[in-house]
Amino acid sequence: MEDTRLMTGELEVGWNKTCATQATRAGESSYASFAAFGVPWRLQADNGVAYRALLDRLPPGTGPGPGKTAERSYALRTLPATIAERDASYLLLADERSLLRSSDLSEVADAFEENLRWLVAERSPRKVFLRAGVVGWRDRAIVIPGGRGTGKSLLVRALVSAGASFFSDDYAVLDGNLVQPYPCRLPIWAASGHALSCWLDDVGDARSRKPVPVGIVLFAPYQPGATFRPKLISRGKALLGMFKHAVAAQRNPVQVLRVLETVTRRCNALEGVRGDARAAASHLLDRLV
Asked: Which of 42, 195, 242, 288 would be 73's cystine partner, CB 3.0–4.6 Å?
């Protein structure tokens, strides 16, 4: 059986990101197998510094992979400067197909993170991932489905500021009726306006939180100037609304529908446009006693 410990050139390191920082010298070739939520992948880089930058972007729950199987193989290659390209650049590949070429390592890491998180969310055999923000309140989860630009992250921010517990502002990870924390890197809003120390404490707490049942599913798209007056909606409407934001809806609709049916049987679903996020958060939490 292939050794699933982190392999970096001739240096063998146990699964520990702190140890992985030893393999950060430019020019070192690095390779490892990983898995998260039952989805395995491989990562290879010909530059130790770049490899460490990608390790910082692994999704929550990542551990050693099985080695022999992988849903996707990522490779990062360093390209030297040329007459046409004055700066050295990085080429990110997924299963030998080009994802991005850029001289900006941060931009490459962003592309890797987005592609990998979507891979895990789409192909997890045991969990259903929704594009949603999630907070905890009174031992229940408030799940806020929504894609980019719907204001869900701002509403999560407002709910956390009002006393709710942070779970995620990216994905709701469902296991039956339970939703588990999905802590991520520092969001932009946490570094600009929200108390940074409080945010870091809450993310640290989220990593150790246990899954909780879904109590409320809230559809609350932003509309300038709107007054937040949410109404109860039917189970069927709630299920269809969540299905639209399920990452694996096209790939595994049977599993997705089974989990969403379980969720809608045991929670309330609310819908209503909102204006100011802080006012909406206060209105909601004041009524959830």
From this structure: 42
Residues shown for the chain: 289
Q: What is the pLDDT of residues 140-189, one digit of tens each?
A: 999 999 988 788 989 999 999 999 999 998 899 999 999 999 987 645 44
With beta carbons less than 8 A apart as the criterion, state whether 34 and 15 touch. no
SS3 state at 209: coil
Neighbour tally for 264: CB within 10 Å? 22
Classify the phi-psi angles of 103: left when phi > 0, otherwise alpha if psi is within -120 to 50, otherwise beta.
alpha
Distance CA 282, CA 289 (A): 12
Q: Which residue, 255, 270, 242, is CA-closest to 175?
A: 255
Neighbour count for residue 104 (Cβ, 10 Å): 12
Percent of the chain residues topping a pLDDT of 90: 68
Structure-token match 């570094």, residue found: 191
Backbone angles phi, psi at 45, to 5 degrees: -145, 145
132 CB burial (10 A radius; 0-12, 13-18, 19+)? buried
57 within 8 A of 45, measured Cβ to Cβ: no
DSSP 132: E
Distance CA 58, CA 65 (A): 13
Q: Please name each of the domains of the chain with its CATH number.
A: 6-123 (no CATH), 128-287 (3.90.228.20)
As a whole number of angstroms, the distance between CA 110 and CA 101 comes to 12
DSSP 75: E
> Which among 251, 267, 236, 112 has a CA at the least distance from the CA of 174?
267
